[in-house]
UniProtKB/TrEMBL annotation:
Domain Adenosine deaminase span(s) in chain numbering: 17-356
Organism of derivation: Aquipuribacter hungaricus
Annotated GO MF terms: hydrolase activity
Gene3D superfamilies listed in its UniProt record: Metal-dependent hydrolases (3.20.20.140)
Top-level division of the source organism's lineage: Bacteria
Name of the protein: adenosine deaminase
C-alpha cells in the first residue's frame, strides 16, 4: 500500500504576522471617515457614497500615471488640516492594520501638507502621535498587539526638507523612527536634499528614500549616494539586471544592483500601487519576483490602502495566486521587513522571532 504525502494547506494570510514598512497615512483613510471629515469642512468629494468613493480612488489610481495617482491626495490631504482629524485618522489606521494581522507598521506622512489650516508642523506631529498611541491601546483592548513607528516625510519638490528633518530629530524619542522623502522622482533627485540627509546622519536618525519607482537606476543611485538604508519601492533596481546570454545562465547584476543586494538594502515593494502607476504590468510580471529570486531583501507593502483599494492580506494573496509566490517566499519577505525595521536591535530581534515563529506555526 502506498501512502501519498498530503499537500500542506495554504497559510491563512490574514492570520499571518505581517510587517509593513511603507504605508502613507494620507493614502489610507477609511472612505466613511473621509466622507464625514469632508462634510465637516464643506469639501466636495467625487462621490457621496462610501463604496462609490472607494471605487473612484482605485479607478483614478489605476491610470498608469504616478502624477495622476498623486492627484487623488488632493482630497485626503484637504481633510487633514485639523488636530482632531489627524488624531482620528491615525488611530483608525492602526486599528485597520491590526485587524489585518499587521504586528508592526511604519506609517509615513508629510507634516508640511497638513499646515494649510494654520497648524504648525510640530502640532501636526503631536496630533498624529496621539492618534497612533490611541490606536495601539484600542487594538490591544481588542486583542491585537501591534507596534507603530512614524516616518516623517519631506516632499522632494518643495523646500521644507530641513524643517522635516529637524522634526524627525526632535521627535525620535516620541515615536518617530525615521525619515523619508516622497513625491515626484523625475527632476527631484535625493541629492537635492543632501543637507537634510547630512543632518540626519550626524544625528544618527535612519532614513529611507522613495527611489526606483517612477524613475530608474539613476534615482536609486541618488538615494544610495545620500546614505539611504532602505529604498521606497526600489523595484527599478531590476533595470540593472541583465538576462543571461546563454540559456539557463544566471542573470548578471550591475554594480548598483549588486550593492543593493549584497548590503541587504531593503526594497519596499508595493505591488498593487506599482501596477497602478505603471511600474509593473501585473502581479505575475512584478519585478519583485525576479529580485527576491536573486537574493534581494524584498518586502511587501501597501503604499496607499484607500487609493489602491488594498491591504497587506490582499497584496500577499495576489502575489501568491497571480505572482507565483510560495508561502515560504511570503514568510521570508515578512522576516526581511522585520529585519529592516527602524527599531533598536533588541526590539527588532524580538519582532523577527515573533514573525518567524508565527509563520512557522501557521505552516506546520
Amino acid at each position: 500500500m502506498t501512502v501519498s504525502a498530503q499537500t500542506p494547506a495554504p497559510v491563512d494570510l490574514h492570520a499571518a504576522p505581517k510587517v509593513l514598512l511603507h504605508d502613507h497615512l494620507d493614502g489610507g483613510l477609511r472612505p466613511s471617515t473621509l466622507l464625514e471629515l469632508a462634510d465637516e469642512i464643506g469639501h466636495e468629494l467625487p462621490s457621496t457614497d462610501a463604496d462609490g468613493l472607494a471605487r473612484w480612488f482605485v479607478e483614478s489610481a489605476a491610470s498608469g500615471s504616478l502624477v495622476r495617482y498623486l492627484e487623488t491626495f488632493d482630497h485626503t490631504v484637504a481633510v487633514l488640516q485639523r488636530e482632531e482629524a489627524l488624531e482620528r485618522v491615525a488611530a483608525e489606521a492602526v486599528l485597520d492594520l491590526a485587524a489585518d494581522g499587521v504586528v508592526y507598521a511604519e506609517i509615513r506622512y508629510a507634516p508640511e501638507l497638513c499646515t494649510g489650516g494654520g497648524l504648525s508642523m510640530e502640532a501636526v506631529v503631536e496630533a498624529v502621535q496621539a492618534g497612533f498611541a490611541r490606536g495601539v491601546r484600542e487594538a490591544a483592548e481588542a486583542g491585537h498587539r501591534i507596534g507603530v513607528g512614524t516616518l516623517v516625510d519631506a516632499m522632494r519638490q518643495a523646500d521644507n526638507h530641513m524643517a522635516a528633518a529637524r522634526l524627525a530629530v526632535r521627535y525620535r524619542d516620541a515615536g518617530v523612527v525615521g525619515f523619508d522623502i516622497a513625491g515626484p522622482e523625475d527632476g527631484f533627485p535625493a541629492t537635492r536634499q543632501a543637507e537634510a540627509f547630512d543632518l540626519l546622519r550626524a544625528e544618527h536618525v535612519p532614513f529611507t528614500v522613495h527611489a526606483g519607482e517612477a524613475a530608474g537606476i539613476d534615482s536609486v543611485e541618488g538615494a544610495l549616494a545620500v546614505g539611504a538604508l532602505r529604498l521606497g519601492h526600489g523595484v527599478r533596481v531590476a533595470d540593472d539586471v541583465v538576462a543571461a546570454d546563454a540559456p539557463g545562465g544566471a542573470p548578471q547584476l550591475g554594480r548598483v544592483a549588486t550593492w543593493v543586494r549584497d548590503r541587504r538594502i531593503a526594497l519596499e515593494a508595493s505591488p498593487t500601487s506599482n501596477i497602478h502607476t505603471g511600474v509593473a504590468p501585473s502581479y505575475a510580471g512584478h519585478p519583485s519576483t525576479l529580485l527576491k529570486d536573486l537574493g534581494f531583501a524584498v518586502t511587501v507593502n501597501t503604499d496607499n490602502r484607500l487609493v489602491s483599494g488594498t491591504s497587506m492580506t490582499r497584496e500577499m494573496t495576489a502575489l501568491r495566486e497571480e505572482g507565483g509566490w510560495s508561502d515560504a517566499d511570503l514568510a521570508l519577505a515578512s522576516v526581511a521587513a522585520a529585519e529592516a525595521a527602524f527599531l533598536p536591535l533588541p526590539v527588532r530581534e524580538e519582532l523577527v522571532l515573533r514573525v518567524r515563529d508565527g509563520w512557522a506555526a501557521l505552516s506546520a
